[in-house]
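User: Can you fold this complex?
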Amino acid sequence: MKVYLDNAATTAMDDRVIEAMLPFMKSHYGNPSSVHSQGREVRSAIEKARKKVAELLNTTPSEIFFTSGGTEADNTAIVCGIESHGIKHAITSPLEHHAVLHTLEVCEKKGLIKLSILDVNDKGEIDLFQLEELLKANPNSLVSLMHANNEIGNLNDLEKIGTLCKEYEAFFHSDTVQTMGHYTHNLKELPINSLVAGGHKFHGPKGSGFLYVNKDKKIHPFIHGGAQERNMRGGTENVIGIIGITKALELAYEEMESHQQHVGAIKQHFIKSLTEAIPDVQFNGLSAEMDKSLYTVLNVSLPPSEANRGMLLFNLDLEGISASGGSACSSGATVGSHVLRALNHNPERDAVRFSFSRFNTIEEVDYTISKLKELYTIEV
Ligand SMILES: Cc1ncc(COP(=O)(O)O)c(C=O)c1O
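Assistant: Here's the predicted assembly.
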């Protein structure tokens, strides 16, 4: 049996998304910047896509910019947010994705900003009082705090953080890569300056993404070149990616309720069955708390075991089960997870992130739990 439980790393594409993209590979191949009819036809498809994304997020098309994914969108918002608004201080948390952390660290190294990193407790919760103190002491800061953590699933309250940022006139950016397409975002109501998406996290194509920047605090471009994306991102557009991410987002919004129920039930079943099978199991961060974490992510801490130590992912892979240890975005790298380190996770225990999608079934979970049970009873 093959079981794919690494959906926070990437998801399988939906057939309907592929169908929507196909004409733009076969017949609609004009360059959207060309003035002839073949170019204009593709330009019109891009603008239709932008309008659709804006409509789904309850905002205006002029605030949506298509990018190559979440990483580029995070880089753009952070670097250009800082540079465009003379920002000298930024606040983030140690649990952010490297697309945010490394970008802010580079800005600090270049002398653009001083960086403050919030404290987190062993569950990965940030302290909003500490955030407020920092905002009070540092006017005109940039705050970058993610909506949901990609390794442990912890959800941050964007409404509360955004309200604080607004009160102290900070630029608030959020990495929403793991929640886009899984939760609704109502940008008319949410006090936020920028957020991002990566299409491959919700059954769209890899290498597709977008950035939202609120019109009240505009930023300058990150990539210079042609006048594409209304002068905000030079380079011929990834047309098939734009069509794909838009279709994927449209389907995600249409079917969100049933997906939330299906995937949430799978996660709950996983927690219950695993706790019965291996009583000494623990769950990292808030990932076992259904209302405080992504319904797609469960981070499991397994009891110390000589047979599995450092080999668990490999042993699971041999049984046909794909999962990851921490974030898979930089998989291949043997360095441990910075998120689990920040949570003081016991290095004697193996941690695995199981992440689910609407394509998973209860049978797949039962198979995975039975294999985990086998792996953890070998030594007893
Ligand atoms: C929270 C988070 N931010 C950013 C990214 C990077 O997104 P992309 O792969 O679209 O560049 C990822 C990818 O795993 C992620 O999980």
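The radius of gyration is 21 Å. Residues 327-333 have pLDDT under 50 and may be disordered.
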